[in-house]
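User: Hi! I have a protein structure encoded as tokens and I'd like to know what sequence might fold into it. I'm fairly new to this, so please keep things simple.
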């Protein structure tokens, strides 16, 4: 049975607390769902610093410092943008750990190169950065839910 988002968020919170770290999130296609999952856990003020929902390219640039040329060269759904989103969240928040999510949740917006379900992630802690792309299947809600779960699992691996 797949672990629930609440259980994953609770485990992530405990890992952050044990590590003495606070988390910042930078989300696009998940629309703040990672931050919501974390803050649904009682006591999350001990490990959650803040989050950004940067759905538009302008928000990614203005709020997180994603470079215009990165967006132009690689597109918003790219590991390069995910990296800059996580770096910007670390830099702007004072948190010790950050994660970012950017992708195509659907039902539209996909392309041959980046079909619906393509989601890029980055997790940062200090100078350590982990980045990857996943391809999820299902409807919009399913892609988003799988993205939140994957973001939390990646956070647990990073810690």
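Assistant: Happy to help. Inverse folding works backwards from shape to sequence: for each of the 159 positions I chose a residue that suits the local structure. Here it is:
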């Amino acid at each position: 049975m797949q672990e629930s988002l609440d259980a994953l968020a609770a485990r992530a919170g405990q890992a952050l607390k044990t590590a003495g770290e606070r988390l910042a999130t930078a989300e696009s296609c998940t629309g703040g769902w990672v931050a919501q999952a974390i803050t649904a856990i009682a006591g999350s003020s001990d490990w959650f610093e803040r989050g950004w929902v940067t759905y538009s390219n302008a928000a990614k640039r203005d709020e997180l410092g994603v470079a215009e040329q990165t967006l132009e060269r690689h597109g918003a759904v790219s590991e390069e943008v995910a990296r800059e989103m996580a770096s910007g969240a670390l830099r702007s928040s004072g948190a010790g750990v950050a994660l970012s999510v950017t992708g195509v949740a659907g039902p539209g917006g996909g392309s041959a190169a980046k079909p619906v379900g393509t989601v890029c992630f980055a997790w940062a802690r200090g100078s350590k950065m982990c980045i990857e792309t996943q391809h999820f299947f299902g409807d919009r809600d399913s892609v988003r839910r799988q993205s939140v779960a994957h973001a939390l699992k990646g956070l647990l691996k990073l810690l």
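A useful reference point when you look it over: The longest helix spans residues 140-158. Feel free to ask if any position seems puzzling.
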